[in-house]
Amino acid sequence: MTKRILVIGAGFAGMWSALGAARLLDQAGKADGSVEIVLVAPEPALHIRPRFYEPPVDAMKAPLTDVLNAVGVRFQQGRVTQIRTGKKEVDFVTAEGVGETLSYDRLVLAAGSRVALPPVPGLREHGLSVDQFDEAVQLDAHLKNLAALPSTPARNTVVVVGGGFTGIETAAEMPARMRQALGAAADVRVVVIEREQAIGPELGAGPRPVIEHALKEQGVTLKLGTSVECVDAEGLLTSSGERIDALTVIWTGGLRATALTEQIPGTRDAVGRLHVDRNLHVLGVEHVLATGDAALAATDDDGNFAMMSCQHAMALGRSAGHNVAADLLGLPQIAYSQPKYVTCLDLGPWGAVYTEGWNREVKMEGAQAKALKHQINTEWIYPPAGGRAEILLAADPQRVVVA
User: Which residues, other chains included, contact 230 with Cβ-Cβ below 8 Å and sequence gap of 6+?
Assistant: First the structure.
């Protein structure tokens, strides 16, 4: 009887999980149909999520059909609604709205994360986002449509809520995007609201002077130690009582793991990630691995854990794919390890900043770092090119990737 490895999610972790499993099956001589790899996701495309803050958004999809077909992975279009680990079954709804069930012998949960929206009055009705593809498309259309409105301070103002990685990259891009939409002479205002007392609080002090300089050079205003009380169609009110008139409010604060983690009887962290061992098996749950943004995974022996980022998702996916196939076949597993940590933060037309290590020591900035960021965004994070051999080679879990 054919055994089945089921991967949920076609993001960076899900795609690489499927390819990593196919690689080991090929090496073990099991690419003969005795083990089936099925990837379930809403569409056969990798959304290039790290680029959603920049245009053209409609180009930020990479088709996966040819890549998956080349290595024998079956794609099943659908949205997973229920996981039953006791029965080793998954329910999903097809694109036509039909409910179906798939059984599995081994499961990899790689369904990613979403931005966490707090219960701020008016946020869901009037806020925008760069978190998901459709949201980025909506923001792009919104910015272009501003040109048809009368020039007012509200029309010309963008507020980015959240001064973390995504918030900084989004804010740095906004002055240029707004002037592209409204005209080079437009009096554009971009404001970042961050509740902590420093921009990029999770990035530490290392790159902060570069970030502050780049944002100031581009006319971005920082409002630190401030939060948002409510949002409406014309702007927002801050915790300090300040009213900011803005037709464009972009929320970037905080991620939460896929809600599917709540259907796995494992331990979760504060943002919903499942605790996993070094081989990415969910602690206390047989035959289930979690990876990417769905997993709380140690990167090394020094107490560091994977970030909810493309950089870690790619390596986590390769490792999960290898280990799920190895577990099924009774072969040695390879512990996930990613001790080298880097950050390459886009700072809009000004450039970028590149750091190394968990203390984020600045190694490169400006145009030089921007060239590296461009290479990462346009080459390194895309699906592997070439034929079957090249794709399988790229899925090696011990391959070093910096992104």
Answer: 120, 121, 122, 236, 237
φ, ψ of residue 387 in degrees (nearest 5): -90, -170
Stretch 8-35: mean pLDDT, rounded?
96
Q: Is 389 exposed, middle or buried (0-12, 13-18, 19+ CB in 10 A)?
A: exposed
For 382, half-sphere exposure in the C-beta direction (CA atoms, 13 angstrom radius) is 13
Q: Using one digit for the tens of pLDDT, what is the confidence trace for 324-367?
A: 999 999 999 999 999 999 999 999 999 999 999 999 999 999 99
Phi and psi at 195, nearest 5°, equal -70, -25
Question: Which residues, 6+ apart, have CB-to-CB distance to 166 below 8 Å?
Answer: 53, 130, 131, 252
CA 378, CA 375: separation in Å to the nearest integer?
5
> What does residue 94 show for φ and ψ, rounded to 5 degrees?
-75, 170
Domain 3-114+255-340, CATH: 3.50.50.60
Q: Which CATH class is domain 117-251?
A: alpha beta
Q: Are 91 and 97 in contact (CB under 8 A)?
A: no
- What lies within 8 Å, CB to CB, of 374 at 6+ separation is none
Give the rounded percent of residues in the chain with a pLDDT score beyond 70.
99
Strand order in 106-109's β-sheet? Answer: 74-77, 35-41, 3-8, 106-109, 288-290
pTM above 0.90, yes or no: yes
Portions of the chain given CATH number 3.50.50.60: 3-114+255-340, 117-251
